[in-house]
């Protein structure tokens, strides 16, 4: 708790931030530094208030802000816990790398396959390509902070990339360099039980719950450039979307 008090003073700096913002910043930094283990509980709000010499209202306000950010999750009757789940906005077209970096996590890939070839009948149908059109295929495991999060199997129309080796950590960054980054997409989500190979690669048990997301991405000129099928760990991901009437 002494370290948390020091972080609060550091967060305030030369500015007189409200106490709840000091605590909010201090808790966020403590979580980033690994002061609390994954999915572990924070100290009780009463304990935080007493040991830091601040009111419970201030503590509650700071924690409410972190819950709203998705960094903490409040469990009725149990307390406040570090949120290990990822909320993915189903209505926003962002890459895995962008999503992870926005949450302060470090993304990386383990490549399973990188190859070029001619479009298959299924790929031709999905991407609306003529038979014999060249495509690139990218299969990889996506990690965040060294935890395997999803398996990604992507087919990209060859005209959309400079070469097979153009893709580094982020496929969307490579597509953006050629002016072919998807600006809209059709997505389909379905629940499934992970099979043996999927479970092994994602380091979970066979039969654990998973999510399959299929995405067809379109460039600004209207051409389909990306067909991607991803398998997400069900214990790590929540997909959310904002809905409007009308």
Please, how many helices?
A: 8
Order of helices and strands: HHHHEEEHEHEEHEHEEE
Percent helix range: 25-40%
Instruction: Return the average pLDDT rounded to an integer.
Output: 86
Q: How many β strands by DSSP?
A: 10
Terminal CA distance = 50 Å
Rg, alpha carbons = 22 Å
**Cross-sheet strand order for the largest sheet:** 4-5-6-9-8-7
Protein name: GntR family transcriptional regulator
Pfam families: GntR, UTRA
Organism: Massilia consociata
Domain HTH gntR-type: 17-85
Describe this structure in words.
With 246 residues, this protein is of the alpha+beta class. It contains eight helices and ten strands. Strand 5 and strand 6 form a beta hairpin. Helix 2 crosses helix 4 (56-69) and helix 3 packs across helix 4. The chain is elongated.
List the helices and strands and how they pair.
Elements: H1 2-12, H2 19-32, H3 45-52, H4 56-69, E1 72-75, E2 79-82, E3 86-89, H5 96-102, E4 107-118, H6 121-127, E5 134-144, E6 147-157, H7 171-177, E7 184-193, H8 196-202, E8 209-218, E9 224-233, E10 237-240
Parallel strand pairs: 3-10
Antiparallel strand pairs: 1-2, 4-5, 5-6, 6-9, 7-8, 8-9
Organism: Massilia consociata
Protein name: GntR family transcriptional regulator
Pfam families: GntR (PF00392), UTRA (PF07702)
Structural key phrases:
246 residues, two-stranded antiparallel sheet, alpha+beta, six-stranded antiparallel β-sheet
């Amino acid at each position: 708790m002494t370290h948390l008090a020091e972080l609060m003073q550091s967060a305030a700096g030369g500015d007189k931030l409200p106490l709840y913002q000091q605590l909010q910043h201090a808790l966020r930094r403590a979580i980033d530094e690994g002061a609390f283990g994954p999915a572990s509980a924070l100290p009780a709000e009463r304990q935080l208030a007493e040991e830091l010499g601040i009111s419970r209202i201030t503590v509650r306000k700071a924690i409410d802000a972190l819950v709203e950010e998705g960094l903490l999750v409040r469990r009725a009757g149990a307390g406040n816990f570090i949120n290990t789940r990822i909320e993915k906005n189903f209505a926003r077209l962002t890459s895995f790398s962008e999503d992870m970096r926005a949450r302060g996590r470090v993304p990386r890939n383990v490549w399973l396959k990188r190859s070029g070839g001619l479009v298959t009948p299924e790929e031709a149908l999905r991407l609306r390509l003529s038979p014999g059109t060249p495509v690139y295929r990218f299969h990889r495991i996506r990690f965040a902070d060294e935890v395997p999060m999803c398996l990604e199997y992507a087919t990209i129309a060859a005209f959309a990339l400079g070469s097979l080796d153009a893709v580094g950590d982020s496929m969307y960054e490579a597509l953006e360099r050629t002016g072919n980054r998807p600006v809209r997409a059709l997505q389909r989500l379905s629940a499934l039980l992970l099979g043996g190979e999927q479970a092994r690669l994602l380091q979970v048990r066979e039969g654990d719950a998973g999510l399959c997301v299929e995405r067809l991405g379109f460039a600004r000129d209207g051409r389909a450039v990306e067909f991607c099928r991803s398998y997400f760990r069900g214990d790590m991901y929540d997909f959310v979307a904002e809905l409007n009437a009308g």
